[in-house]
Design brief:
By secondary structure, the protein is of the alpha/beta class. The chain is built from 25 helices and 25 strands. β22, α23 and β23 form a beta-alpha-beta unit. It is elongated. The C terminus is likely disordered.
Length: 750
Amino acid sequence: MASAPSLVAAALGLGVDERAVELLADLRERRAGRVTYLPGLRTAYLGVEALVPNSLLRVTVGTGGTRVEQRRFWPFRPRVARTDVDEVYAEFRDRFVAHATLLAGLGRPAVSLTGGLDSAATAVAAAPSVRAAGGFAFTYLNPRDAARGEAAVADVVGARDVARLLGVPHRVLRWRQPPAGGTFDVLHRRTYAPETPSRGAAHAMWADLPGDVVQLQSNGGETGTTFLRHRPDHVLTPRRLTELYLGSGAPVDDGLARELYGGYLDRVPMDPATLLGFDDYDVLYWEQRMGRWGWQKFVDGDFGHRILLPFNDRVLLETMLSLPYPMRRDRVLPARLVAEAGLQVPGSAAPVAPAAPTPHPGRVRSGMRRLRGALRRRAGVPVGRADGPAGGEQDRAGGHRAGRDGTVRDGVMRAFAVVPTGAAEDFPGALRTRPLPVEGLSLRAHPALPHAVVGDAGAWVLVLGEPLDVPDGLDGARPVARLLHRLLIRGPGLVAATVRAAGLCGSWVVVMAGPEGGRVLTDPLPSWDLRLGPDGRTLMGDPGPAADLGGGEGHPLGGDHLLRAGPPDPVPRWQVDELPDLAGAVAPGADAVRRLAAHVLLLTARGRPVLGLGAGGSLLEVLPLLTGPAAGPGTGGGRVGAVTWWDPSSADSTRAMIRGGRRAFDAGVDQRLVLPGRGGPVDPGAALDAALGPDDVVWLGLAPGRRESARSVLGAVRPVRPVALPWSDRVLALLQGGGGPDRCTEPHTS
């Protein structure tokens, strides 16, 4: 006797049953895409039989020799039919919760969670113990399955929703094959020889889960509800058992039936007198589906850690099986347990109001300790003046959320043009016209685009976007425009204003003109498709339909250049020039750590930070600044979230989602997933808006110097909410002490 057929065969030197191997191959072909196993008592070795659940192997050793017999030993007593669902539920709940709690107390618990009801019930029962012991939930995912259909995606999304509502951290494991000849490959092949079953999930658990976890696996729950739904009157025979196994309508001959189930009903009888009122369909699922296939799921986990089964309790199953079939078919017991916890019952259309994420301060603190770099060594953080000129006033020009009727979801919110007045009305696009201080020049911009104009014809400044001035602690177009205007009209005038503008953070465009001439600068990413029209006077921002004006698409202006114009002409004619030396923007004694900390603190005032995490996870480097003693109000560890754009049709996107999720999990940050078109809006910005709260601010890991443009990313995000760009800072690279991403490998949230 052994825990796997291969061990018995190895101990006794028994050979492979080649016919059984042929049968298994034939069954896999017949049941393509479905669970396949050798049914009955047959194994892949000659002379080795399976001992199915509810069977007793009695070995008698005496002077007359050794006698071995196998018989059914359950049911112990007749089934008791009950219709008081409240009474049965109370017994089920008490025993199931007690069992799950005891199992979760044997180590650090990890709940194997899918989008199904049974695992959700286990998660509900074990959640208090999981939270108390620093446990988590996990779901494994095959990127190929995610691309092929909805079921795998629904598992991940459903599991994540359940975990979040229960306040349990959740991570996704990537289903993948093991390296040939590696340790796991050898272990797995030896265990399941001669025929190796699917191993991607087993390898994911072995490779990615800690060895000290106690996995709570929910297989077997359908024994107490239903699995086989079609239940006509019947007399079980080898032929009927084969029909049930292969599925309705499958051709069955008596020879195949004898090979699969011959002798089974003699060893493990299932007649009414033996089953004592229990339904043979339920018993068949228990003893065949679980006994001949389900054991592999438990062994798969056992390669690397303990695996325990909350439904593995005969008294619990008898309690569930006492209800009438319609109630079990409707899964009233586990569904009620899940509903009482405030969760939506899988398969039900009843909505459940989402709960706020439960903070995990212990995990956030431990995640912070694991982070490396100079950010952890910072001391006090000066943030500039909050009460300086403009007093931190912000001009949102209609607000970030303006135009949610669909008019700003096509990327045009960032569209603007500075054009000669005579051409203003001819400029394409539904943009509003606003005169600028100098006669003969107008601004056309989307009404939701934040912007501000300060000054008069002698000296004026136009600021578009969401700039931040770190030295003075200013956030927004209006206060920044006032600051630049003061510098423009005082000595050293245009030079000082240009240097200060070049050192702004965020996503922005600045146009300014005075007695010394004019300058146009954009942020260092660049996040705008800023172009100079063929007339040399027209400036166009994303999407910049310059081609519609004739003369080609115009000259693009990147983040490493500016436009300059001489003073004589009131309507400037712009020319491309080099950026100024930014040495004047660096305060004496400034260092990158303090500047980044001040920058981050300014950004946190915009709302709850939600880090846009791709595969690289570089934004997690600012986590200590968001959770440490110098963090802004309301940005404690439990309030910092993460979001990842996931396109399941792309295997690369799925792998990036899993890698980003692993980093968020290790850092103690809750990761939300945005799936366009998956049960919600198809528009990228609208899908993101639906996934986040009204006060959430998306942080993007976009950094200067990358080939990828920020325009497409911001076009998907900014139409519906503000953003934060902590690496959008030219000055940071000039300072000592680090403070920037070592490896910026995530140009956007996907």
